[in-house]
Amino acid sequence: MIRLQRGPVEVGGVTLRNHLILAAGVLGTSGSSLARMLREGAGAVVSKSIGPEPRSGHAGPCLVVLEDGVLNAMGLPNPSHEFKEELKPLDGKPVIVSIFGGNPEEFSEVASWFADSATAFELNVSCPHASGYGAQIGTNPDLVQACTSAVARFNKPVWVKLTPNVTDITLIGKAAEDGGADALVAINTVRAMRISLEAKRPVLGNRFGGLSGKAIFPIAIRCVYELYESCKIPVIGCGGISSADDVVEMMMAGASAVEIGSALRGNPGLFREISSVLYSDNGVFSKEIVGCAHE
């Protein structure tokens, strides 16, 4: 298989220790868990999504493990402003803070709390199960551009995490790019549901949720491929990645780096496992394979 050169890489204005990033919402609920993932070999980490007000999230069940993925409807639970304390021990580490809001003003307010502590911001305009937030922002190109511009003024790198639940993801990617985004993250979870035969009702308390894991890998590949052709800023692939081969395939589609989430369930050492296969002292530079499937 193709092996990559070891060493740091710069993507979207952020210097990563390697190409493997902890995705938002997975083992990123506290400063200690973020620090642990860095020790476990992550090239950077993304926090859970932080919003303008504390939220307890949806009533359970909030997460169901399926045969080919994970279905969740957490409802963006977060401590809001208090999360700032969690980042103090991580000063100088590659920590991207995921933020959300219902409008540009709220995105700006939340970003202001972390302007001195975050390495970069990742805008969650793609969560499919939180009314008034997430994908309800991310399906509107004008709102995406305005929210991105509101955060870009803090002179920190801005990544925008996109929803696949749109007719044309490139329109949203271009809107984020026009708003001043430094990178696009594709994709967040796919809106989905399951029904319990025994209970005769949806398995999630919120009825609908977001599907992650291996089941959505082909969707993520397609989205990254389209965005690479349509936008000039880097694309970070996310969705169903669980092996070194997945990372290389995502890069061939156009990803400059990847985020890993659901595959860490039960295996927090996955970053080291993938790195042991993916990297070599005499490997190729990633720029030699990023987007090569387009040639």
Explain how this protein is built.
- It is a single chain.
- By secondary structure, the chain is of the alpha/beta class.
- Helices cover 26% and strands 21% of the residues.
- The protein has 8 helices and 18 strands.
- It has helices at residues 31-39, 104-113, 135-138, 141-152, 169-178, 217-230, 244-253, 270-278; strands at 4-5, 9-11, 14-16, 20-22, 44-46, 63-65, 70-72, 95-99, 120-124, 158-162, 183-186, 190-192, 195-196, 201-202, 209-212, 235-238, 255-260, 279-280.
- α4 (141-152) packs parallel to α5 (169-178), α6 (217-230) runs parallel beside α7 (244-253) and α7 (244-253) crosses α8.
- The radius of gyration is 18 Å and the shape is globular.
Helix fraction by DSSP (H/I, runs of at least 4): 25-40%
What are the segments in which pLDDT stays under 50 over at least 5 consecutive residues? Answer: none
What structural class do helix, strand and pairing data support? alpha/beta
> Helical element count?
8
Largest sheet: 8 strands, parallel, barrel
Helix-strand pattern: EEEEHEEEEHEHHEHEEEEEHEHEHE
Give the strand line-up of the largest sheet: 4-5-8-9-10-11-16-17
* Beta strands, count: 18
How big a fraction of the residues is strand?
Answer: 15-25%
Mean pLDDT: 96
Distance between the termini: 20 Å
Choose one word for the global shape. globular
Keywords:
26% helix, four-stranded antiparallel beta sheet, eight-stranded parallel beta barrel, 295 residues
